[in-house]
Amino acid sequence: MRLAASYVPILIARIGSGASAFLVVKLASGGKSEAGVVLAAYPFLEALGALIAGRWSDTLGRKKTLVLGYVARSLAMLLLAWAFYTHETPWLEAILNGVIGLTTAFILTASLAMATDLTEVRNRGLGMGGFEFINLASYGVGYLIGSALYSIFQGPAAYLTIALLTVFATPVFAKYLPETRPVAPAGGVFLLSVLPPSAVVLLPVWFALTTIIGLGMYAPRVLQVEGGGIVSHVVGKVGEDLVVGLLFIGALALLGAGAVFFGRLTDKWGRVKTFRLGLIGGLLALVVLNISLHFGLGPVESIAITAPLLFLTSAIGPSILALIGDEADIRYRGTIMGIYSVMLGLGIGVGSLLGGLVAAAYHQAEINALATAALGVYAAMTALHLALLKAYQGAFRETARII
Fold it and tell me: pLDDT tens digit string along 186-198?
């Protein structure tokens, strides 16, 4: 029950984040490049916030850090809703969206530290898989809610609605959330000084995944759902924006369900072997996606064909979290698990900027160009991972006691 309670803040925060991601890319002022900058401000500042939040969750306590992040984030969301109503200024929207990302890092990092506190080596893979499932699935639910709100309001009222929902949801968890903080370390430490050696080898792949998520978050700006038969029928019934939301939640739900399955597999089969399975699955998924789009299939059909390989890709997240969690010094666990938000923020930020640049450069084939960019990033980061694996021999080792 305590582990389940630690997931509640992420459930609420990521529903808001998912809805915000869809609405910000739709409501942002300016052209395609400006929209990419506004969207990227959130993850970049989330990466910065994680460096602070990890340390605070160790020294102030998980719960205090988390609640502080929620209060500040709620205020920033209300201000961004106001900016959408009263201004058409990309830089103001970028600043406020960045503040929302900064404060979200406090929620994400503290909640992940709580989940790590409440698991042991024998069940940590499953616990991290559960965290990934809640993180991804609730983000997808929020994305769908955001697309539905935009279909209804077609303007800033959609963002104001999700901001108010986030504000009123905060007390739901704050009163009952348990504190799991261990004894705080006496001296100050910085994230890079306490990272386990295996993290250095794994970070390129993590960065690749989150960059691809950033590219996917930009896609609604340019995505046109095409296809015949049932696809055209559904688009005609519910509208293209809602279909895009359904596609996004479908992909994230698949990844989330896979995270739980493969999280448990890391406990029984091993972290390293499960990670390598996901690494191969991710590369094959992107190759198949690009081939499908190249031969003229629509995004719905292409994603459907890619789905089984996308499921394999979900093995990467829980494997990395379990490996790092196993090796993390309990005194600095909040600081170390902050790497999750750092990589999430940096990758999504780069992906959002890259999405804007690619879409602006390839006017007639934006979706194909985004898919090609995703494959290029993944291939490059996989090559870097293999080079680091060779350079840091012995750093990437099995940590689970196979049960």
Answer: 555 555 666 777 7
